[in-house]
Write a structure and sequence with these properties.
The protein is of the alpha/beta class. 42% of the residues lie in helices and 13% in strands.
Length: 84
Amino acid sequence: VPPEAAIVVNATTTPLIFGELRPNVFFADVAPAAAPPRAAMAAGCCIIDGLEIRAVQAAIDFRSLTGIEADVEMLREALDEYLS
């Protein structure tokens, strides 16, 4: 990870090795069922997991279609239960 990088996005389902992660890096893991890499957790990165990303996407889509705000936490819990 280059020193100037502030955001790392993992958009693969293949386990990757990330070197030189730092606490000031935001790490987004797009795969909804994958656990965040241990390297990102060990480095103290701010981790945004795939469930969170999918829940927010679903809330945005729901609001766009209906005009009603969706409960992101409820969507996240439902996705977690469904994928478990």
